[in-house]
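Appendix B, example 12.
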Amino acid sequence: MSGLSERRYDLDWLRIAAFGLLIFYHIGMFFVSWDWHVKSAHAGPALQPLMLLTNPWRLALLFLIAGCATRFMTDRTDRLPMLKSRSLRLLLPLIFGMLVIVPPQTYAEIVEKLGYAEGWLAFYGQYLTFYDGWKIKGQALIVPTWNHLWFVAYLWVYTMIVIALRPILHALPMRGVAALFRQPLVLLLLPPVFVGLLRLTLRPVFGETHALLDDWYLHALYMAMFLFGYGIAKHDGTWLAIERLRWIALGLAVIAYVVMIWAVLTDLGGKLRPFVWAADQWMWILALLGFSYRWLRQGRLTDSPTRRYLTDAIFPFYIIHQTVIVMVGHTLTPLGLPAWAEGVILIAVTAAACVSGYEIVRHISWLRPLFGLRLDTLPKRPAALQAG
């Protein structure tokens, strides 16, 4: 088992990369034909295969890493202080985000899709009073809303469940579970079979709502990933098994991705399609965990000023980014620019807004907790890997 003082730099880097990919994914959502808050005039299917490269596994990986982080925290924090700490770090940004960060996204959406013309002040008054008159495709927009911050709400709920059940979880034979997942066939086959069954049975019934109370397919998936990360976090044998399977997992991931794209393009696959998706999801996760464990736990890249900066900055980046993308995209669409120019501007402005926003927030003490940062500007010692 890993020593309590060891910091998992590989998981730091994976968390940074996964959130970074999420930001680029949301830029891509402006350009693809899938439904989103605002759309480019050039929106079409061209980027969709590239979007599907990360779509199955990006968020599942973040919940797995969050589970690992939560396991590390439980070894140094009692249940009540941990409950208070995680609630402060997650609920404050969520509430602030719903009241301040997210509303411009809804405003741009109803202006673009419904031709709303009453102005910002009228909109915000309606937004804060649970107005149900904005209907898109027959569905009323739920306000106040959390939009992209649903991840924070789900993470808080899963963390609270684990804190409540911690004595039971720690009484379970976790060594036996970890030993089971050291078996190559179990590690390769059991998770995608489980996820495939979830997609086959729960997803057609519940869909993916991000509304918390009725999102049972995603809860089954993401809570399972969270608990898996929690269970294996401190078992080196399981991580060594993941490392040994990295090349096999990468090869299977590429094959699963090609098959998945073929199934999507040809609308074929039937009942096997959920398992192809699940295999693609798990093999990419397994490969990324294995290669990062191999390459990013030692050497110059592990602990560096860049890692320390981004580990602290990436959560404020996440909070800020989508509102910037939506508002800039909404402003660009009427200008009639070519798609490449829209893309360059979106990337540049989003990056600049995230960095400048973080630099402002990190130096103003009362803003720090609203963006998920600790109250102290300079932590006295490196904390265990934070998940959000």
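Strands lie at 135-136, 139-140. The two ends are 24 Å apart (CA to CA).
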